[in-house]
Design brief:
The chain is 70% helix and 0% strand. By secondary structure, the protein is mainly alpha-helical. Helix 2 runs antiparallel to helix 3.
Amino acid sequence: MNHILLALLFQFVLAPISWWLGAFFVIGYYLGREMAQAEYRVIQNFYAGKRANMPWWGAFQSKAWNIKSILDWVLPSIAVIIVALLALVLK
C-alpha cells in the first residue's frame, strides 16, 4: 500500500508536466528498485554472496523473484496507468 501511495505522489508531482511522464517515471523507478533487490536476493541465495559469481542476467532469473517483489512493481504501475488514463479521458 505504501508503494502505491508513494507512486501516486510521484505522479502528482510530475502531473503539471505530464501525467504519462509521472507514470513512466514511477514504472521505471519501481522496476529498477525491484530488479536491484532481485539481484541481491539471488546473489545471497545462489551465488555464495558474491556478485562476481552471478551472470549479468542474474536479476532476470525466475528464482530471483517472488510474489511480493512482483506485486511491489506491478501494483504501483497499474495505479499510475489508471490515473494517467483517467486524466486523458477527463481532459
